[in-house]
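To illustrate this point, what follows is a protein record of this kind.

___
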Amino acid sequence: MRKGPLVIYKEDNGITRAFRNLSGVTCLNVTRLNLLHLAPGGHLGRFIIWTEPAFKSSQRDLSSNTLPRDMMKKCRLDKNHQSDEIQRVVRPTNWTKEGGQLRRIL
C-alpha cells in the first residue's frame, strides 16, 4: 500500500487547509499518532514532515518514564478466536468439500 507524505502538527493554524488540495498528503495531529499512519501496511519508510511544536511535544511525551503498558499480558489468539463471544459474530465459512477438493461457494 503506497501512501504519500504525512504532515504531523500540534496546532492547526491553517495547515490542513494548506495541504488538503495536494493529493496523497495526509495531515495528522501529534496527539492522534498511530502506527498504521506512520508505517502503513507494516512497511517503514514513509516521508514524514514534523512541525517544530509537534516534534517538541512528542519528545516531551516520550521522555517521561510512564510508557503505555500492554492491554493483554499473555495473548492467546487461538483461545480468544475460539471463544463464544467471537464465534457468535464471525461469519460462517464459505468453503465446501466437493470431490476431495475445497471449493468456495459464491
